[in-house]
């Protein structure tokens, strides 16, 4: 499923018109009809539906939607909220078809009458502005959106809630707060941003006949269940433990053994053939009691914290994850430097390791073997030197710039996790729920990702599958047996078997 900017959506639309010969009025008819079909799935036959119609393509879609619903016997009031002279082109054609169909068109001339109509509606459909938002709304759209947001009825937006920017980086806006958004053709960036995502509500994408040949070439897509089923590694009948990778997890301490323990357990539950835990000797009894299937490599320590180890002992492994519970002392930074310089296998860096690697980005850039960084927004802000708020306003741009500049795979964790390759390809995982907002779940993800790195033919596919499996497991558990409040990282690990049974 593609994710586009406003310009990319416009370009796709224009190519369909100019190169494929599909007239704009035909696309508008298709968009309005498909939106009407989606609305039918969200309303009751007796509902009073008020359609707010503006100018431009979104308004044209609104005329088609209102006419289609009226043709199908729904109770619809169509309100044109902009002056007649604002409606032109294909939108004007569909306004004329609507009127010629002998359906009444109400116009915003009396505010009290309009307010009363909105207050009596069961459903508000927003077809006022769509993708054309650029900064705060002007009158009368500003007042209409404020009034709409005050109503207790169901609110449905067509393509994009009015006022919400399509692209990232915009924070000053007024937005229609939709319960449902019917997206035309492709998801827009703002559907995945922390400050704009709540305006969308539930999202449904409708296809309107734009030729796929002319769309964005998959550089930015949503990773879905079908993608996981298509790419998840399959275990051969004659495979053995060596077939699925030897993984090493470096981290933990006497006072923080849990992080490394759950990472190791998660890696094993996710199919890694062999997992070794390199940690402080004093932490091994705590970790081994939880994950008996792992082997152990004692690390030099001081006061229960890792101080280092001979890196040549790590060369026997096929992939390494480092950072969970490792601490932030100067000896750890020396270890990180040695790992980057001397270890020629895929390396995943998480948690405390991310704070150490900021000073070692030049070493990261010259390393030939793949590097995966898995920050949450606060850790990523530390890596970039930018405020968290700024990073979260433009996560796609910041992720791509960082990944390409430093030659890393970047997994920016959040409700919409953005996975970026060193070449700038981006995939978004929206699985998971608030049950994962708890200590230890990030360590579980690191273990899953290490296992996927060891087993997957495609490095990028493996990271995306790991993120999806992690989030989907939380969803499965909270649907069947756990609450979002009570879900633990260890519960997620135990639930992984069910997820792999479903998606394998």
From TrEMBL:
It comes from the Bacteria. SUPFAM superfamilies: Ribokinase-like (SSF53613), YjeF N-terminal domain-like (SSF64153). This is Bifunctional NAD(P)H-hydrate repair enzyme. Its EC number is 4.2.1.136, 5.1.99.6. PANTHER family: ATP-DEPENDENT (S)-NAD(P)H-HYDRATE DEHYDRATASE, ATP-DEPENDENT (S)-NAD(P)H-HYDRATE DEHYDRATASE FAMILY MEMBER. InterPro entries: Carbohydrate_kinase_pred_CS, CARKD, Nnr, Ribokinase-like, YjeF_N_dom, YjeF_N_dom_sf. Bifunctional enzyme that catalyzes the epimerization of the S- and R-forms of NAD(P)HX and the dehydration of the S-form of NAD(P)HX at the expense of ADP, which is converted to AMP. This allows the repair of both epimers of NAD(P)HX, a damaged form of NAD(P)H that is a result of enzymatic or heat-dependent hydration. It comes from Halobacillus salinarum. AMP binds at residues 413-417, 442. Homotetramer. Binds 1 potassium ion per subunit. (6S)-NADPHX binds at residues 57-61, 130-136, 159, 325, 376, 443. Its cofactor is Mg(2+); K(+). Residues 224-503 form the YjeF C-terminal domain. Residues 9-216 form the YjeF N-terminal domain. The lineage of its organism: Bacteria, Bacillati, Bacillota, Bacilli, Bacillales. Belongs to the NnrD/CARKD family. Keywords: ATP-binding, Isomerase, Lyase, Metal-binding, Multifunctional enzyme, NAD, NADP, Nucleotide-binding, Potassium. It holds the Pfam family YjeF_N. It catalyses: (6S)-NADPHX + ADP = AMP + phosphate + NADPH + H(+); (6R)-NADPHX = (6S)-NADPHX; (6S)-NADHX + ADP = AMP + phosphate + NADH + H(+); (6R)-NADHX = (6S)-NADHX. K(+) binds at residues 58, 126, 162. The keyword Cell membrane does not apply.
